[in-house]
C-alpha cells in the first residue's frame, strides 16, 4: 500500500483493539454519522498534511472530536482525552513496513455541538509521523 | 525484544548511571567489555534520593531536554601522496569526547546531601559506568525493573544500549525566569563506547 493508506491503517488499528473497545467509547471515522444521536462518541479525522522525512514518509495531525453530554460538564471530555492518551500519546504503531509514531497531544475548549445541543464538542489533536524507508 | 528496526524518534531515550553497593575496582572496570557484564550493572532502578545501592542497582538521569551525539568523533587526517593528484585520508587518533547534557532541573535530585546518589557523584572524581538507551517506545515493564537492561525492562520494546566509563564532572544550573529551570551536566568519557547491545 501507499504511505497515506498505511498511515491511516496504523491509526485506525488503535481503535480496533480490544483494549480501546473496552473503554466503551463509541468511535466513528469522519463523515460517518453515528447511529444513536445524542449519545457520547468520538469522531476521528486523519490529516496527513505535511511532507515527511523522505518520499516514503508523511506527517500530519490526528484530529478527534469528542462529543460528550453537556450535562456532564467539562470533566467528561477530559476523561475521554485521558483515555485517548493511554493509546496515542507518544505511542507507536507498526502494521506495514513503515511505522507511525505519535507525539504529544493537546485539547481545545469545549463548545456546544451545533448539530445536537445536548452534546458538547471538544477537539483533541495529536501530531503523528509515518516513517517509511527509501 | 531486539534492536530498533525502523526509522523513528527516540522519544523515550534514557540515560542512567550504575550505582552499585561497592565501587568497582580498577581491575573490575578494566574487565568490563561484554553486554552481559554491563547489563548486570543495570538490573534494578533506585531513586537518586534515598535509594539504597546494592549489586546491580542504577539511577536514571531523568528530565533530559537534549542529548548530545554519542560516540567518538573521527579525526580524519589528509595525507599527501607523492605523484598522486589527490591526497589520501587516514583516521588519526581521535580526541576523547566530553558530553554535555541539558536537563530540566529538579534540585532535590542533585542535592549534595547524604544519601543522594546523583548529587554525590558530581565531582567525586570516581569512574562510573553510564548507559544510554535509545528507545522509540516506552518500556512496558513496571516499577524498579521498567528501565532495567534486561528483558523485563527496556527489553520489552526495541532498544539499543551503549555503555561507557566516565565521570560526572560538573553541574551548572541555569535559572530561568520564564521557562523551567535547566541544568547542564558535563560528563567526561574515559573509555570507548561499548555497544550497541540489546536485550
**Sheet with most strands of chain B:** 9 strands, mixed
Low-pLDDT windows of residues of chain A: none
Low-pLDDT residue intervals, each spanning 5 or more residues of chain B: none
SSE run of chain A? HHEEEHEEEE
Largest interface: A-B, 14 and 9 residues
| Helix and strand pattern of chain B | EHHEEEEEEHHEEEE
| End-to-end Cα distance of chain B | 6 Å
Distance between the termini of chain A: 14 Å
Compute the gyration radius of chain B: what is it? 19 Å
Helix content, binned percent of chain B: 10-25%
Shape of chain B: globular
Report the portion of residues of chain A in β strands.
35-45%
The number of helical elements of chain A comes to 3
| Number of helical regions of chain B | 4
The largest β sheet of chain A comes out as:
7 strands, mixed
How does this model look, in words?
The complex is a heterodimer of chains A (134) and B (199). Chain A has helices spanning 3-14, 18-21, 75-88; strands spanning 26-29, 41-51, 58-69, 92-93, 99-107, 111-112, 119-131. Chain A is an alpha+beta fold. Chain B has 199 residues and is mostly beta strands. Chain B has 4 helices and 11 strands. In chain B, a hairpin with a 7-residue loop joins strand 9 and strand 10 (182-189). Chain B starts with 13 loop residues before the first strand and ends with a strand. The mean pLDDT of chain B is 90. Chain A binds chain B through residues 53, 57, 90-92, 94, 98-99, 101, 103, 129, 131-133, and chain B through 6-9, 11-12, 136-138.
Amino acid at each position: 500500500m501507499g504511505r497515506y493508506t498505511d498511515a491511516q491503517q496504523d491509526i485506525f488499528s488503535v481503535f480496533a483493539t480490544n483494549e480501546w473497545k473496552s473503554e466503551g467509547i463509541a468511535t466513528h471515522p469522519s463523515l460517518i454519522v453515528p447511529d444513536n444521536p445524542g449519545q457520547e462518541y468520538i469522531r476521528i479525522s486523519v490529516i496527513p498534511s505535511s511532507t515527511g522525512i523522505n518520499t516514503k514518509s508523511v506527517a500530519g495531525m490526528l484530529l478527534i472530536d469528542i462529543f460528550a453530554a453537556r450535562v456532564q460538564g467539562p470533566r467528561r471530555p477530559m476523561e475521554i482525552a485521558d483515555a485517548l492518551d493511554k493509546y496515542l500519546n507518544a505511542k507507536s504503531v507498526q502494521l506495514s513496513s513503515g511505522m507511525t509514531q505519535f507525539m504529544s497531544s493537546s485539547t481545545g475548549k469545549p463548545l456546544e455541538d451545533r448539530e445536537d445541543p445536548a452534546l458538547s464538542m471538544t477537539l483533541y489533536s495529536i501530531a503523528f509521523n509515518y516513517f517509511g524507508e527509501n | 525484544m531486539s534492536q530498533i528496526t525502523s526509522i523513528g524518534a527516540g522519544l523515550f531515550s534514557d540515560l542512567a548511571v550504575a550505582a552499585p553497593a561497592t565501587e568497582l575496582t580498577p581491575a573490575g572496570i578494566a574487565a568490563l567489555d561484554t553486554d552481559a557484564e554491563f547489563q548486570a550493572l543495570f538490573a534494578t532502578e533506585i531513586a537518586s534520593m534515598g535509594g539504597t545501592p546494592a549489586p546491580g542497582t542504577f539511577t536514571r538521569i531523568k528530565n533530559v531536554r537534549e542529548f548530545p551525539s554519542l560516540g567518538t568523533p573521527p579525526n580524519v587526517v589528509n595525507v599527501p601522496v607523492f605523484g598522486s593528484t589527490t591526497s589520501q585520508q587516514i583516521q588519526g587518533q581521535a580526541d576523547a569526547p566530553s558530553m554535555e547534557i541539558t536537563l530540566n532541573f529538579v534540585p532535590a535530585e542533585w542535592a549534595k546531601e547524604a544519601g543522594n546518589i546523583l548529587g554525590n557523584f558530581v565531582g567525586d572524581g570516581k569512574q562510573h559506568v553510564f548507559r544510554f538507551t535509545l528507545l522509540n517506545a516506552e518500556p512496558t515493564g513496571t516499577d524498579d525493573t521498567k528501565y532495567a537492561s534486561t528483558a523485563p525492562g527496556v527489553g520489552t520494546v526495541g532498544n539499543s544500549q551503549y555503555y561507557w566509563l566516565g565521570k560526572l564532572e560538573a553541574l551548572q544550573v541555569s535559572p530561568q525566569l520564564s521557562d523551567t529551570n535547566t541544568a547542564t551536566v558535563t560528563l567526561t568519557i574515559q573509555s570507548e563506547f561499548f555497544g550497541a547491545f540489546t536485550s
